[in-house]
């Protein structure tokens, strides 16, 4: 196990990935800690106040944990392309009485400064970043506060940038991962490099400890990632059906549906590349969606929330990595321990 994480008391080298938008709950993070692993609260799409409440809840259980943030890396949307896309998908939203044509372009930073202030005023053991590498000064003050800093990267070039900025650990994410890619260049779809190959490329580029992520769903894949040079692995999709996960009911059902036979990388829901189970929305709009994050996220969010409440799996983002067939409905601790059983 990589020494920085070992110092936190982590002995199970299968970590619980942060899954923003609901799936990651304080209960899931606590369950990971009880399995001698480490879970990450998902700070994305939350205010600093809401994140502080979750931190307090996890701390009250005495659990070791980390926090993940979306570092600002907006993809400016072309206004005309945005309006054209809004008109195209408007009938989908009208199914739930939502008029998205009245939605303006929202370009925000997900409460970035407020969350950094929170994590400096009330430091946590580990902070991970995705979407962008924060300024070196931000990383330095977090480390000075006693926080281990982890950066998501999807290539050797990104790994070098993160190392230069002063991070402690790299989370190496392959394109097989479910949900948003952590790529620093979201205007482009990341190349489908197998995780072992990507780990090898990053190991040759930088000397930092590595956590492998993306498509890991079986004990054999855990063992393979560790043999390829990772000190630990991070899993998300296999936890989406866990008892403690806050995944929506239609999302959980879709993961178990044998008719769902493949995943696709799409910008249709958020304007940023993300891997999801194929559904009607991805079929119709993947080729039509412009790049534009977070503008498209805000555009489609009301429709997705309404669809989830109505148990409609065809108009929600069914985030899933390529190993989604291995997601099971059982306690998260059992899932993590089983994945580590081959070590």
Report on the structure:
The protein is an alpha/beta fold and 343 residues long. It has two domains: 3-74 and 109-243 and 328-339, Alpha-Beta Barrel (TIM Barrel); 75-108 and 261-317, no CATH class. It is 37% helix and 14% strand. α7 packs across α8 (195-205). The protein starts with a helix and ends with a helix. The model has no long low-confidence stretch (mean pLDDT 95).
Write the layout of secondary structure elements.
Layout: H1 3-6, E1 14-16, H2 26-34, E2 39-42, H3 48-60, E3 65-70, H4 79-94, H5 112-121, E4 126-130, H6 136-144, E5 148-153, H7 156-165, E6 169-173, E7 179-180, H8 195-205, E8 210-213, H9 219-227, E9 232-235, H10 249-255, E10 263-266, E11 274-277, H11 280-285, H12 295-309, H13 332-339
Helix pairs in contact: 2-3, 4-12, 7-8
**N-to-C series of helices and strands:** HEHEHEHHEHEHEEHEHEHEEHHH
The CATH first-level class of the largest domain comes to Alpha Beta
Low-confidence stretches: none
Name given to the CATH architecture of the largest domain? Alpha-Beta Barrel
Which of globular, elongated, flat, extended, rod-shaped describes the shape? Answer: globular
Instruction: Measure the end-to-end span.
Output: 11 Å
Biggest pleated-sheet summary? 8 strands, parallel
Q: List the domain count as a whole number.
A: 2
Helix/strand-derived category reads alpha/beta
Amount of helix = 25-40%
Number of E-type strands: 11
Instruction: Determine the CATH topology of the largest domain.
Output: TIM Barrel
Specify the CATH homologous superfamily of the largest domain. Aldolase class I
Assembly context of the chains:
single chain
Our Rg estimate from Cα atoms comes to 19 Å
How are strands sequenced across the largest beta sheet?
A: 1-9-8-6-5-4-3-2
């Amino acid at each position: 196990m990589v020494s920085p994480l070992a110092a936190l008391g982590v002995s199970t080298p299968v970590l619980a990935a942060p899954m923003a938008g609901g799936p990651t709950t304080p209960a899931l993070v606590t369950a990971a800690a009880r399995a001698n692993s480490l879970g990450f609260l998902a700070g994305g799409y939350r205010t600093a106040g809401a994140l502080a409440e979750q931190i307090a809840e996890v701390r009250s259980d005495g659990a070791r944990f980390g926090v993940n943030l979306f570092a600002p890396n907006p993809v400016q949307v072309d206004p005309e392309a945005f309006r054209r896309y809004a008109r195209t998908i408007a009938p989908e939203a009208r199914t739930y009485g939502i008029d998205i044509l009245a939605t303006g372009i929202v370009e925000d930073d997900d409460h970035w400064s407020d969350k950094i202030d929170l994590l400096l005023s009330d430091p946590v053991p580990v902070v991970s970043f995705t979407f962008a590498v924060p300024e070196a000064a931000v990383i330095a003050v977090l480390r000075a506060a006693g926080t281990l800093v982890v950066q998501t990267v999807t290539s050797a070039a990104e790994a070098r940038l993160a190392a230069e900025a002063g991070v402690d650990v790299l989370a190496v994410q392959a394109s097989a991962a479910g949900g948003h890619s952590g790529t620093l260049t979201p205007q482009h779809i990341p190349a489908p490099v197998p995780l072992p190959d990507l780990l090898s490329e990053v190991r040759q580029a930088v000397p930092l400890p590595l956590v492998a992520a993306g498509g890991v769903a079986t004990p054999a894949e855990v063992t393979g990632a560790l043999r390829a040079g990772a000190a630990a692995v991070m899993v998300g999709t296999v936890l989406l059906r866990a008892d403690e996960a806050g995944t929506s009911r239609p999302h959980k059902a879709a993961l178990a549906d044998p008719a769902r036979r493949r995943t696709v990388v799409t910008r249709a829901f958020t304007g940023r590349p993300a891997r999801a189970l194929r559904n009607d929305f991805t079929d119709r709009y993947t080729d039509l969606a412009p790049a534009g994050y977070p503008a498209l996220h805000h555009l489609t969010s009301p429709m997705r929330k309404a669809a989830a409440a109505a148990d409609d799996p065809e108009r929600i983002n069914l985030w899933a990595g390529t190993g989604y067939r291995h997601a099971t409905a059982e306690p998260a601790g059992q899932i993590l321990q089983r994945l580590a059983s081959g070590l």
